[in-house]
Amino acid sequence: MAPPATEHPDLRPADERTTLSQRLDQYRSVAAASLTGLSWDLASAHPLPATDMTIAGIVRHLSWAEDRWFQGRLLGRAMPAPWDTPGADDPDHAMRLEPTDTVEGILGMYEAACERSRAALAGCASLDQAALVPSFGRGPVNARWILVHMIEETARHSGHLDLLHDALRA
């Protein structure tokens, strides 16, 4: 039931964009691996009494975060489905599972969001490129900030996913 081990990114020296992108992809792999092969009963289980977090809900939330930061903020685009509905801009909303959700559907959603994010970043001439939509009511962040934030967000939730897997095995 443990998620498969994921490889470290290429350890050869690289430029900043490559290094940060590889690190984010490493944590993206951890998140996807945590859900891969689970039954829906396990993926949607609440094994920790102090939280409503589920493995499927966290990966669903990470899909939202990818789209929010790379599509919504960096590119200034409308959020893609299913994040284009009222209330969908609430991060907790993205953690809540829908009756139609499946393991395969959430994995597909996450993989598609990650691909959109990679394409958005590839379209930036520089990591200094300012996001088109202001953040935190103060102004735009840049592509570098978004990339580092998504590493932090995905890594933090990878720890949650580890705890949930451990609790399911207990």
Structure description:
- By secondary structure, the protein is an all-alpha fold.
- It has one domain (16-169): dinb family like domain (Four Helix Bundle (Hemerythrin (Met), subunit A)).
- It is 56% helix and 0% strand.
- It has 6 helices and no strands.
- It has helices at 16-35, 40-43, 55-74, 91-95, 103-122, 143-169.
- It is globular and about 45 Å long.
DSSP helix fraction: 55-70%
Secondary-structure arrangement, i.e. CATH architecture: Up-down Bundle
- What is the approximate shape? globular
The CATH topology label is Four Helix Bundle (Hemerythrin (Met), subunit A)
In round numbers, the mean pLDDT is 92
Q: Describe the biggest sheet?
A: none
Protein name: Mini-circle protein
Organism: Serinicoccus chungangensis
Short recap of the structure:
By secondary structure, this protein is mostly helical. It has six helices and no strands.
What's the helix and strand layout?
Elements: H1 16-35, H2 40-43, H3 55-74, H4 91-95, H5 103-122, H6 143-169
Provide tags for this entry.
single chain; 170 residues; mainly alpha; Four Helix Bundle (Hemerythrin (Met), subunit A); 56% helix; globular
